[in-house]
């Protein structure tokens, strides 16, 4: 119940609400699974990103799920950094290419280094 006098379709509440509910419902119906979310910030207002990610983390813990998400969003990176203080279950992995071989690479950040970088405005994307 969101306080409206009549029922409405979820799509009437906007793309952001639809996406967030889709993420949460996927996590809640799957147990012991891996959930993949591409560009988690798309359609989500920046002011609720942190709360939404926190809700996803809590739902994932309930069902023993693991979430992998991609982002280019500074807002998401800052939210993840803030949430790390509450949940040490968060990791940050940066994908890129080796300068010489051009082969794809993945670098898992030490979260203390990640936090230091974000808090000092260093680029981590």
From TrEMBL:
<dbReference type="Pfam" id="PF13175">
    <property type="entry name" value="AAA_15"/>
</dbReference>
<dbReference type="InterPro" id="IPR051396">
    <property type="entry name" value="Bact_Antivir_Def_Nuclease"/>
</dbReference>
<dbReference type="InterPro" id="IPR027417">
    <property type="entry name" value="P-loop_NTPase"/>
</dbReference>
<dbReference type="InterPro" id="IPR041685">
    <property type="entry name" value="AAA_GajA/Old/RecF-like"/>
</dbReference>
<keyword id="KW-0067">ATP-binding</keyword>
<dbReference type="GO" id="GO:0005524">
    <property type="term" value="F:ATP binding"/>
</dbReference>
<protein>
    <submittedName>
        <fullName>ATP-binding protein</fullName>
    </submittedName>
</protein>
<keyword id="KW-0547">Nucleotide-binding</keyword>
<feature type="domain" description="Endonuclease GajA/Old nuclease/RecF-like AAA">
    <location>
        <begin position="10"/>
        <end position="77"/>
    </location>
</feature>
């Amino acid at each position: 119940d969101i306080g409206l006098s009549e029922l409405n379709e979820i799509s009437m509440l906007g793309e952001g609400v639809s996406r967030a509910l889709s993420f949460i419902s996927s996590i809640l119906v799957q147990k012991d699974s891996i959930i993949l979310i591409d560009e988690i910030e798309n359609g989500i207002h920046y002011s609720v990103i942190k709360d939404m990610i926190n809700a996803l983390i809590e739902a994932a813990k309930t069902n023993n799920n693991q979430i992998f998400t991609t982002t280019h969003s500074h807002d998401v990176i800052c939210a993840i950094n803030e949430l790390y203080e509450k949940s040490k279950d968060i990791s940050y992995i940066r994908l890129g290419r080796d300068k010489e071989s051009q082969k794809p690479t993945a670098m898992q950040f030490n979260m203390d280094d990640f936090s230091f970088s974000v808090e000092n405005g260093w680029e981590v994307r």
